[in-house]
Each structure stands twice: as structure tokens, then as C-alpha cells.
Amino acid sequence: MHQDTRRIRQRYAAINLDEYEARLIDALVDYTGMSKATLLRQLVLKEALETLGVGDLVNTSVGQRAG
Description:
By secondary structure, the protein is mostly helical. It has one domain. Helix content is 52%, strand content 0%. It has helices at 19-32, 36-51, 62-66. It is globular.
């Protein structure tokens, strides 16, 4: 079905959040209308790209959907 089987997403990790962090993520989910998994994946990837110094080269959709 998929042209590139490496693009099939699989569970990679789990995170533990305190109540305040979870409420922040829930608020972002409500604000953007995105699913929690999609939102968290995009936030993690955005931070990773920025840490590597290539965040400006890649167009992410978290900011676009939120704004």
C-alpha cells in the first residue's frame, strides 16, 4: 500500500507529564483542533530540527495551524 514502508509510523516512546504540563497540552489540542499524538509529534520534531539548527529550513505546521 505504501510506496515507502519506512514512512509507516510506529509507537516510539511515551512521555510522563505532571498535571500542569498535561493541561497545557490539552489546551493546545483544544486550540489547534489537532489530535494529541499529531500535536506532540510535530512539537518534538520541531524542537529537534531547531536544536540541530535547521528549523528555519523546514516548514512545520504547528505554528501555521495555531496562528
